[in-house]
Amino acid sequence: MKYCFLIIETVIEIFFSCLTAWNSTFLNQTTYAVGTNPMGVVVADINNDNKSDIIATNARSNTTSVLLNTGNGTFSPQTTYSVGAYPVGVAVADVNSDNKPDIVTANSNSGTVSVLLNVDSGTFSPQTTYTVDKFSWSVAVVDVNSDKKLDIVTANDVSNTISILLNRGNGTFSPQTTYPVGLRPFAVAVADVNNDNKPDIVTANYGSDTVSVLLGIGNGIFSRQTNYSVGPSPCAIAAVDVNNDNKLDIVTTNGGSNTISILLNTGNGTFSPQATYPVGRAPHSVAVADVNSDNKPDIITANQGSNTISVLLNVDNVTFAPQVTYAVGYNAWSVAVADMNSDNKPDIVIANHGSNTISVVLQC
User: What keywords appear on the UniProt entry (predicted)?
Assistant: First the structure.
C-alpha cells in the first residue's frame, strides 16, 4: 500500500511540474555527471536498443563520456574513453559500415580527430587518430564524395580552413585536404543546400561575422567559398529547412550580440540577408527540431553566459515567437534535441561546461 501511495505522489508531482513549467512545455532538468568541462554533446542509439543515448566530449579530461539510456529518459553512470587533447566537437555515425554507430571527436589542442569504433552493445575500441589543422572546434561525418562511405569534415579555427578526410573503407581515412573559409571558423555543417544531390559545406566564422558556403562539385571537391554576413561572433551553425519550402536554410548563434541569425535559401544555394532574434547571453550552440508537434521546425539554443536554453517556436514558417528560457547547468555550451523517453516528444540535452554535467530536460 505504501508503494502505491509513493507511485501516486510521484505521478501527481510530475503532473504539477508540467503545469508550472515554463510555457507548460518542459520539466525541470535532471543532471548527470560527466568528465571535466564538457563542450560537445550528441544523442544517438549506440547500442541498438531503440533508446537514445548521450555522448559528450570532456575538454579538460581528454575523454568522451557515454551515458546509456536505461529507460524512460534516465541514464546509467558514464563510461569514459580517452581521445585527443581538448576534445570539443563530436559526431556519431557508422564509419565502417558494420551497422554500429561509431564516435568521432575533434581534438582542438592536438590537431587531430579521434575515431572510436563501436565494438558491441555500445562499447568502443581505443581511439585511432588522424591529423587535421590545430584548434578544430567542430566535426561533421557525412559522405561527401558519393561513394557510400562516411567522410570527416572539421572546422579549423586558427588556419581559417576546413579539413576533409575521405573514408578509405572499414573506417580508416586518407590524409586531410583543406579549403579556405572565413576567419576563425568555429562550426561546420554538411548538407545539400542547392538541391543537386551533392553535399555542400557551410561554416560559422567567429572572426569575420560571416558564414561560408562551399558548394559540392562532385567526388568530394568543393567550389570556392561564398560568404554571407551574420551577427557578431557566430559560434554554431545548422543547415535545415526552417520555412518548409524544401530548401535548406542557415541558422547561426551569435555570441557577440546574444542573437540568432536566420538566412533563408533563395534557391540554388544562395541566401537572403539575415533575420535576427534575441536569445540568452552568449549563445554557443543551436539545434532545430519540431518541439511542439505542429510540423514547423523550432529553434533551441544553449546560452553559455546566462546558464539557460532558449526555445523559439516557429509561428508561421517565416517568423519565430520570442524566446522562452529554461535554467540549466553552469556555462551551457552545447545542445541536442531528441526523444529521450520514448513518448514521441522531443526532449533537450545540454552539456554544462562549467559544472561537469549533462542536463536532460524532458518535455511534459
Answer: Signal
